[in-house]
Amino acid sequence: MTGQTTVPTAVRVHGRSVQRRALRAMLDALPTHGGRLLLAGEPGLGRTTLLQWAARSFRAGPVLHLGPGPDVHAHLTAGQLLDTLRAAAVAAPVLVCVDDAHRWDTPARTALARAARRLSTAGRVGLLLSVASDRAVDPEFARLPVVHLDPLAPARAAALLDDLTDGLAAPAVREQLLAEAEGNPALLVALVRRLSPAELRGHRPLPSPLADAAALAEAAGGVPTGPSAHARDLLLTVAAAGEASDGADADAGLVRDALRRLRPAPEPGPDAGAEPLPEQLVPAGDGLRFRSPLVRRTVHATADADRRRAVHRALADALDGGGHRLTALLHRSWSLCGPAPAPASADLLAATAADGAVPASHRLRATAYARAAELTADGARRAERYTAAAEQALLAGRPERARPLLAAARDRAAPAAVRGRAELLRGVTELRDGPVGDAHQSLLLAASLLAADDPAEAATAALAAADAAWAAGDLPACLATLAPRYQSQSQSPLRAEHPSHGSHGSHGPDGPAAARGLAARTAAVVRDHRVGMRALLEGRLDRAGAPLGQVVRRGRTGDRPETLLRSAAAALLLGDVDAARSDGARALAAARQLGSDALVPQALEYLAYAELRAGRHPQARTHAEEGLRTALRAGQRNTAAHHRAVLALAASIEEEPDAVARHVTAALETARRHGLAQAATLAQWAAARADLGRGRPFDAADRLGLLVLPGPGRGHFAVWRLAVPCFVEAAVLAGRDEDARGVLPDFADWAAFGADPQAAAQLARCHALLAPAEQADALYRRALDRHDEAGGDFERARTALLYGKWLRRRRRPREARGRLGTALAGFERCGAGVWAAQARDELRALGAAPRGPDAGAGTPARLGRLTPQQLRIARQVAEGATNREVALTLGVSTRTVDYHLRKVFAALGVRSRLELARMVGQAERAQAAKAAQDARRAGHQEKTGAQP
Q: pTM value?
């Protein structure tokens, strides 16, 4: 290594928004009353940086920094320290910062904690302390309010790395740095500082290991140790056991057994009561756990090499014959001397990792394959094993680990099939968490590299490339990718060592024949899905049904999550919502049973889409909420964007405009960065539907027009038709009848295909909205009949609402009341609060007294002076609508709106639209607060069993 990378000393704070809000709240309150806060986090997470940020941000008075010292603080009593702080705050508020308070000696910590607890809120002293959480929090600080620091999220860590390196790190180097740092800012700084400029830019190989003992010790603030030889061996044994553990815990029985083998006559251990556990460890059920993952890594890396190998050997001996074959082999491999290749050990380790009969998680198999690769001398074999490790890391939901493994697998001397397999995994990784255009190109390259040796896998790569083009909304690329090129169903001998598509091995416990049968079925599913999908996109709807139907039928007998996910996707293309829900649920169960964390978010995505298509928005929301959590945990930002779009669509029918805006913004942020046209279209549709539900047809028509009208900005080719009914309704209300008529022919073709069970009814409703009065009545009735055939409360209620409005304006109040009451019941049944409010307004305009939260006391006293029609006009004007827009929305003349608005101004005593908006806003906030209070009271009664 020549030279080091110079790291900037002043780097902006990345992330930590929650922690900064808590600090800001305390700082803002100091001019009036005191406060105290404890920052806790493992070494390297930025406690000192946050204290410095707080000190810089405090402008109301002086900042004092207290540190340990035998001359002063150790001898101060709590009362003396408190008097000192209060005296300092006489003239102005004071912020007192105490970094690393855990390093103070016991008397000083006791005085500090007592002073903190006795600080009166009437004073103007803010006490901000930080402690490391790699040990138990001192009892002195246990009662203070705590703000915890967690590792940085991947996006925040990446932004920090770009700041540290000015964006000069090569992509492969960048991925490896982020994976090794595991979200710890101090470790990331130490790793960057270790590299030379040539290494950082990828011009020279990276040192191995990248996170060496020196870098880890720097980030951890030193080398952790124990008070005795036994304690040090215990720390090292727990740390070594964690290298081959699926979680943070090491089995306590295994650790004790290994210690006995390590020390034939050991000192009395913690279980004998002679010596407590080292402060870095904590019991966890039947296991032992380090309080800090960084400290665990540091203990392992900084140990004497001979002692570390002896510990791994003892663990391997303890595991032999106990049903933990793969774990034992891993520890045995770590007990080998030196970095030299060990072909026999590597072959045995890789073969065991590939054996489906050996119980092991994807995470453990990834570790085993990676270790086997390190011990392999042959370049092609090494690349193959790194690729297998990356696949298992992906299945374990660890793309941040898969990326550097794929980078390590790059070997130009490797056979095309090996490079193709690595490129396939790289493309799948990008498809879930990167620009989908890049994923498309990687997957096409994979298909090309695999074509000669493994046509079946080439076909899988090509179909995945079509998935990428679909996500990007690139119809020509999708069609070109689906062209028939790879049709052989042969299985390459390359696949004899590592797992395929989530299986635990090349041939599981049922043998090679079962593996060949699985491969043949998978190839058939891929072929039929490709043929059917291409026919559908070419508009040859008559040729799409048979192959896609065959994919769905195969899903009924399949049990692999990948096959079931293809079946669910085909069912959605065909409009078989029940089959999509069933296959999605089975795929979810299978993925969970196999521990395939990477497939769980996708299964939940298909389930959420199926529920949306069926009109079951609450169920869609439930699946999408869980899917969002699992996608973020698995590092799949693209999948998370799709779940956010579903959540926005679900919230768009409820009375949650803030939730819609939040999910739309988050979905579009990722969609725009990664080229996700499908997610972007869904999110924009959700925003427009929220506008339409809240009585803003002009805004809705403007948004939807960009999605459904012909032009370069048209929405995703497979999604925009779903938004046509919303656009037609909004366009008619906004007076854009010609635009509405222009999109109906395409929608009629879509409805004729039958892929959307609601489309036929929606088409009749659209024709009714545009038809003359003598035809509209029959069209509305036809639409309701079609809804009865298709099911789905929400869409049927929307048609009933529009029909009821039409009837009321035709002065047929009795019929209108019936339709509007049906609409209200349907909206309430599916939780469509914002649309239920429209139905109630219409019923009030008829003089009816609708049930629900707006009835009776729901209207504040001053607004209660208004007639139902005046109240509707007042609310729309308060939301910014012009008189013409209100007239079009309510189906009345502008003169009628002018007349009612003058009456509103007189009744409420306001003189401007601004005053009206302020009054309506205050009334609605008071109403929302009362509803929230009633909900809390109801929840309390339900929990306690109290009667109202």
A: 0.78
